[in-house]
Amino acid sequence: AQSVTQPDIHITVSEGASLELRCNYSYGATPYLFWYVQSPGQGLQLLLKYFSGDTLVQGIKGFEAEFKRSQSSFNLRKPSVHWSDAAEYFCAVAPINYGGSQGNLIFGKGTKLSVKP
Amino acid sequence: DSGVTQTPKHLITATGQRVTLRCSPRSGDLSVYWYQQSLDQGLQFLIQYYNGEERAKGNILERFSAQQFPDLHSELNLSSLELGDSALYFCASSVAPGQGDEQYFGPGTRLTVT
Fold first, then answer.
1. Nearest CA of chain A to the CA of B106: how many Å?
2. Would you give the DSSP letter of residue B26?
3. Fewer Cβ close by (within 10 Å): the C or N end of chain B?
4. How near does any CA of chain B get to the CA of A15, in Å?
5. In terms of pLDDT, which residue wins out, A93 or B112?
6. 8 Å CB contact of A42 and B90
7. What are the backbone dihedrals phi and psi of residue A77, each rounded to the nearest 5 degrees, phi first?
């Protein structure tokens, strides 16, 4: 079955430090890949997405992610974390269905990011 | 603000009751998705509609049903509520129904079943 694994439940980094959040997926083919962020009491906001092409994708708020087919991974990175980045981050896949008529997302369990001053 | 609205924000009800959650998609979006977020199950896809028709079904219980109306708003009906149905219910919308289309999420409805 298709699945998304985010191995880190909670990560704490110091403000200004770099960040990498891990995501692995299990799927027969390369699915569509997404990273979403959820701030407390808010809905989810799309940070970036990968469909094909360049394996390093840039997103909003200074985030980037790298797709590695050999590792079935899509890790999220940021070179310098700001206090406002404290939130929960979700990796998601949209399984490819021929005909393209279904768009449901499969989410990982999320990684909660805390930022130390 | 994603442009997706959900009402009510909070809902407290008793076991065995029935509730209706409402979602208005972004202007121009034809597809609506419902997701449930709970502590034990995480974020789970429930159901998708596109232009009034059901397109995909996920882990939606038989006690739950949904529909999308001609004006494209959607309602999720939850009946015979159980304590385990307590969760945050999100609606999302996209322009088209496909897997590559960006989904915009509403702020959610927090349901508490007592």
1. 6
2. P
3. N
4. 26
5. B112
6. no
7. -135, 155
Per CB-CB distance under 8 Å, the chain A contacts of B98 are: 100-103
Look up residue B55 and give its two tokens.
């397109």
Q: Residue A2's pLDDT is what?
A: 76
Give the integer Cα–Cα distance in Å for B21 and B6. 7
> Residue B105's beta-bridge partner residues?
B92
The full length of chain B comes to 114
Give the dihedral sign, CA A109/B25/B100/A48. negative
Q: CA B39, CA B44: separation in Å to the nearest integer?
A: 11
User: What is the nearest CA distance from A109 to chain B, expressed in angstroms?
Assistant: 5
Nearest residue on chain B to A33, judged by CA atoms?
B100
Q: What's A50-109 look like in SS3? A: ECCCCCEEECHHHCEEEEEHHHCEEEEEECCCCHHHCEEEEEEEECCCCCCCCCCCEECC
Which of A101, A111, A112 is the best substitution to test chain B (most B C-beta atoms within 10 A)? A101
Chain A interface, mutation test: which of B32, B34, B99, B101, most A Cβ atoms within 10 Å?
A: B99
Q: Cα(A88)–Cα(B100) distance, rounded to whole angstroms? A: 23
Tokens standing for residue A24: 């692995």
